[in-house]
Design a protein that fits this description.
82 residues, mainly alpha, extended
Length: 82
């Protein structure tokens, strides 16, 4: 025998004042900066611009050997870890 709980009852439970206050407290704790933590900032990526209408687009075409090597890498089986 299975018990089915209506969705509105679950919503009432999840949105009760006690659980809502706990979620808000957890969110505040997560967003606090940690002591000694340092942000690792990467360089900004180069700005990508679309070519103007009528300009050719450069697309590198791999050689047959490069294509077959890439295909072999993508299709090889992984050895099961012990």
């Amino acid at each position: 025998m299975a018990i089915v709980i209506p969705a509105y009852k679950l919503e009432e439970l999840l949105n009760c004042n006690e659980l809502r206050a706990q979620r808000e407290a957890d969110l505040k704790e997560e967003t606090k900066p940690k002591p000694g933590a340092k942000l690792d900032l990467a360089d900004k990526p180069k700005q990508f611009t679309l070519p103007k209408k009528g300009e050719p687009i450069e697309m590198p075409i791999p050689s047959r050997k490069q294509f077959e090597n890439d295909l072999a890498k993508a299709t090889r089986r992984k050895k099961p870890s012990e």
